[in-house]
Amino acid sequence: MGLVQRLWAGGEFPFHDGLYRADDTALELFVDGPGAYHPEAGQPVPFRLGGPLGVAEAIGENGTTEADPCFESPLPDGSGWMTGGGSGMGNIGYLARLDADRSLRWVAAMWASNPFVSVRYEGPTAVFTNDWRNHLTLDLTDRALS
Q1: How far apart are CA 8 and CA 22, in angstroms?
Q2: Of 104, 105, 94, 34, which is closest to residue 70 (Cα–Cα)?
Q3: CB count in 10 Å sphere of residue 36
Q4: What span, in angstroms and rounded, lies between the C-alpha atoms of 143 and 13?
Q5: Long-range CB pairs of 105-108, under 8 A, 24+ apart, other chains included
Q6: Which of 57, 63, 79, 106 has the most crowded Cβ, counting Cβ within 10 A?
Q7: Could you report the per-residue pLDDT of 22-61, keeping only the tens digit for each?
Protein backbone atom coordinates (compact mmCIF):
# COMPACT_ATOMS: atom_id res chain seq x y z
CA MET A 1 0.00 0.00 0.00
CA GLY A 2 1.41 3.38 -1.03
CA LEU A 3 1.59 6.62 0.90
CA VAL A 4 -1.59 8.15 -0.61
CA GLN A 5 -3.54 4.93 0.03
CA ARG A 6 -2.30 4.75 3.64
CA LEU A 7 -3.33 8.34 4.26
CA TRP A 8 -6.78 7.73 2.75
CA ALA A 9 -7.25 4.53 4.77
CA GLY A 10 -6.52 6.63 7.88
CA GLY A 11 -9.06 9.29 6.91
CA GLU A 12 -6.51 11.84 5.65
CA PHE A 13 -5.20 13.35 2.44
CA PRO A 14 -2.29 15.66 1.52
CA PHE A 15 -2.72 19.28 2.61
CA HIS A 16 -1.57 20.72 -0.73
CA ASP A 17 -3.58 21.40 -3.90
CA GLY A 18 -3.18 18.36 -6.10
CA LEU A 19 -4.72 15.33 -7.74
CA TYR A 20 -3.22 12.37 -5.86
CA ARG A 21 -3.47 8.87 -7.31
CA ALA A 22 -3.37 5.57 -5.43
CA ASP A 23 -0.07 4.72 -7.17
CA ASP A 24 1.61 7.73 -5.47
CA THR A 25 1.73 9.85 -8.60
CA ALA A 26 0.17 13.31 -8.54
CA LEU A 27 -0.60 16.36 -10.66
CA GLU A 28 -0.64 20.00 -9.64
CA LEU A 29 -4.17 21.31 -9.26
CA PHE A 30 -5.17 24.95 -9.63
CA VAL A 31 -8.53 26.00 -8.19
CA ASP A 32 -9.40 29.63 -7.57
CA GLY A 33 -10.89 30.15 -4.14
CA PRO A 34 -14.40 31.40 -3.43
CA GLY A 35 -13.04 34.95 -3.15
CA ALA A 36 -12.81 34.89 -6.94
CA TYR A 37 -16.56 34.42 -7.34
CA HIS A 38 -18.28 34.88 -3.96
CA PRO A 39 -20.79 36.19 -2.99
CA GLU A 40 -22.44 35.16 -6.26
CA ALA A 41 -23.60 31.63 -5.47
CA GLY A 42 -24.13 29.20 -8.30
CA GLN A 43 -20.95 30.09 -10.17
CA PRO A 44 -18.56 27.54 -11.72
CA VAL A 45 -15.49 26.58 -9.70
CA PRO A 46 -12.39 26.91 -11.93
CA PHE A 47 -10.39 23.64 -12.06
CA ARG A 48 -7.15 23.15 -13.98
CA LEU A 49 -4.62 20.33 -13.81
CA GLY A 50 -0.92 21.07 -14.20
CA GLY A 51 2.29 19.10 -14.32
CA PRO A 52 3.64 16.36 -12.08
CA LEU A 53 3.68 16.93 -8.33
CA GLY A 54 5.93 15.08 -5.88
CA VAL A 55 3.70 13.42 -3.30
CA ALA A 56 6.34 13.06 -0.58
CA GLU A 57 7.54 16.62 -1.16
CA ALA A 58 4.01 18.07 -0.99
CA ILE A 59 3.34 16.22 2.26
CA GLY A 60 6.76 17.14 3.65
CA GLU A 61 6.12 20.84 3.01
CA ASN A 62 2.44 21.05 3.98
CA GLY A 63 1.52 17.93 5.94
CA THR A 64 -1.85 16.19 5.81
CA THR A 65 -5.40 16.99 6.84
CA GLU A 66 -8.43 14.95 7.91
CA ALA A 67 -11.17 14.16 5.43
CA ASP A 68 -14.62 15.21 6.64
CA PRO A 69 -16.97 13.50 4.16
CA CYS A 70 -20.25 15.13 3.15
CA PHE A 71 -21.44 12.68 0.50
CA GLU A 72 -20.76 9.34 -1.15
CA SER A 73 -22.53 8.46 -4.38
CA PRO A 74 -22.34 5.43 -6.69
CA LEU A 75 -21.22 6.13 -10.25
CA PRO A 76 -24.08 5.57 -12.72
CA ASP A 77 -22.18 2.84 -14.58
CA GLY A 78 -21.56 0.86 -11.37
CA SER A 79 -17.77 1.09 -11.71
CA GLY A 80 -17.24 2.82 -8.40
CA TRP A 81 -18.08 5.77 -6.20
CA MET A 82 -17.52 9.49 -5.85
CA THR A 83 -17.13 11.02 -2.42
CA GLY A 84 -16.38 14.52 -1.30
CA GLY A 85 -16.37 16.91 1.57
CA GLY A 86 -14.03 19.27 3.34
CA SER A 87 -11.48 19.74 6.07
CA GLY A 88 -9.98 22.37 8.29
CA MET A 89 -11.60 25.74 8.90
CA GLY A 90 -14.16 25.49 6.10
CA ASN A 91 -12.15 26.59 3.08
CA ILE A 92 -10.75 23.17 2.15
CA GLY A 93 -12.59 20.86 -0.21
CA TYR A 94 -11.81 17.46 -1.61
CA LEU A 95 -13.23 14.99 -4.11
CA ALA A 96 -12.27 11.35 -4.38
CA ARG A 97 -12.99 8.63 -6.90
CA LEU A 98 -13.24 5.15 -5.46
CA ASP A 99 -13.32 1.78 -7.20
CA ALA A 100 -16.31 -0.55 -6.82
CA ASP A 101 -14.72 -2.05 -3.69
CA ARG A 102 -14.32 1.52 -2.33
CA SER A 103 -10.53 1.47 -2.69
CA LEU A 104 -9.06 4.85 -3.60
CA ARG A 105 -8.43 5.65 -7.25
CA TRP A 106 -7.64 9.37 -6.72
CA VAL A 107 -8.27 12.24 -4.35
CA ALA A 108 -8.28 15.90 -5.40
CA ALA A 109 -7.28 18.23 -2.57
CA MET A 110 -8.31 21.88 -2.95
CA TRP A 111 -7.19 24.45 -0.37
CA ALA A 112 -9.70 27.16 -1.29
CA SER A 113 -12.67 25.47 -2.98
CA ASN A 114 -14.83 25.12 0.13
CA PRO A 115 -16.31 21.72 1.03
CA PHE A 116 -18.23 19.80 -1.61
CA VAL A 117 -21.63 18.65 -0.37
CA SER A 118 -23.27 16.86 -3.30
CA VAL A 119 -22.89 15.43 -6.79
CA ARG A 120 -25.22 14.79 -9.71
CA TYR A 121 -24.38 12.98 -12.93
CA GLU A 122 -25.04 14.01 -16.50
CA GLY A 123 -23.81 11.06 -18.56
CA PRO A 124 -20.04 10.76 -18.01
CA THR A 125 -19.94 14.19 -16.38
CA ALA A 126 -20.13 14.76 -12.64
CA VAL A 127 -21.35 18.11 -11.32
CA PHE A 128 -20.25 18.75 -7.74
CA THR A 129 -21.74 21.48 -5.56
CA ASN A 130 -19.92 23.15 -2.69
CA ASP A 131 -21.40 24.66 0.44
CA TRP A 132 -21.82 28.04 -1.31
CA ARG A 133 -23.84 26.37 -4.10
CA ASN A 134 -21.00 26.89 -6.58
CA HIS A 135 -20.44 23.98 -8.93
CA LEU A 136 -17.48 22.10 -10.33
CA THR A 137 -18.02 20.04 -13.48
CA LEU A 138 -15.65 17.18 -14.28
CA ASP A 139 -15.63 14.78 -17.21
CA LEU A 140 -14.97 11.44 -15.54
CA THR A 141 -13.84 9.97 -18.87
CA ASP A 142 -10.91 12.42 -18.92
CA ARG A 143 -7.78 10.31 -18.79
CA ALA A 144 -6.50 12.04 -15.64
CA LEU A 145 -9.82 11.45 -13.82
CA SER A 146 -10.72 7.96 -14.98
Answers
A1: 9
A2: 94
A3: 12
A4: 22
A5: 105/21, 105/22, 105/80, 106/19, 106/20, 106/21, 106/22, 106/145, 107/4, 107/8, 107/13, 107/19, 107/20, 107/67, 108/18, 108/19, 108/20, 108/29
A6: 106
A7: 999 999 999 876 555 556 677 788 899 999 999 999 999 9
